[in-house]
Input
Amino acid sequence: MASWTRKQDVYPFETIELVISGILPIVLIVFGTIGNLLSIIILLNKENRRTSTNIYLIFLCLMDTISLYQWNLANTLVSFINNQRQIWGNSVILCKLSQFFAFYTLHTSAMFLTFVELDRACLLRSRWYKRKIARSSVALIICIIILAILLALNGFLFDLGFEYSIYNNFTGTYETFVACYYSMNAKLNDFFGIQYPWIHLVVMYFLPFSIIIICTLLTAKKLIFSQTFTNGQLTRSNRRNRRISIMLLLMCLTYVVSTLPNRLCFSVFSNLIMGYDYTDTIFLSTNTLMYTRNAINVFFLYLSVHGFRRDIHSLALRCLRRRPLQVFPFNNSMTRNNNGSITVNRKHTEMAIIRVPKTIN
Output
């Protein structure tokens, strides 16, 4: 991975960087936090949390929310105060937390998105998976295992970062600094600089990309080439599966499009980009683009899932303390027949009447 330190640039690159790393990150933090929290609240409903796919989506939204603050908040502060202060470099503890969550949230987000796509593909093609594995309890256990494995994989990052002091001849005092992403242990530095970038590429890109592509092809084959028709139309179940699968496909494509430029710039073309006035602009643009995907989960869910839109509208009405206007019978008895429908005994039935006052123009 390329070692890059942001510097003061000339006009117009500094103005562009203010928008890219100062204004846009604030928009992503606000929109992403509200959207992801709304998604988590709705997916945690009793009916929604029964499905395994929604469990993976809950963890995805949670880790995406954390990742938005890790990078965007720090760069927003740097952009507005001209790099005079930093959030994560003020103490060793903050330094260690920042360098850990920088990779941990990206890795967990990539894995949960991969399992969302994998779970959906297996649900469409395997009855055994649907009966035995596609349960909320099993999905919860898998999510905990993913968090534990990636914690063990990235745990060494807590050993990076140290504090050192330099004597200032002009003031006659020692000045203390914090070095992030470095260690006094040479072997640990070599591991982070040589072996760990390959681990990052596998966890963040190679593994998710390959699984997502395979699952996408299997899902497309199931829904497009193996469709079942009833009276010339797709069944309701197939239409619902197609909408959800298209939504997940768009989420995965957005992940690929938003993360691939970042990795190409930092791993492949870094030597061609470094050392120019536009260096910071390119690196900041790819970072902001990468974190954009973490803020738009609610957008895909709202457009693709009817039940999610219904729950959003219901939640909005409850927050506004409003209820939809209804006219219903009272002083009557209701029974449920064998078909599951409700019948009303209309003996001595009276109707509630809502009077609407006349308005005079």
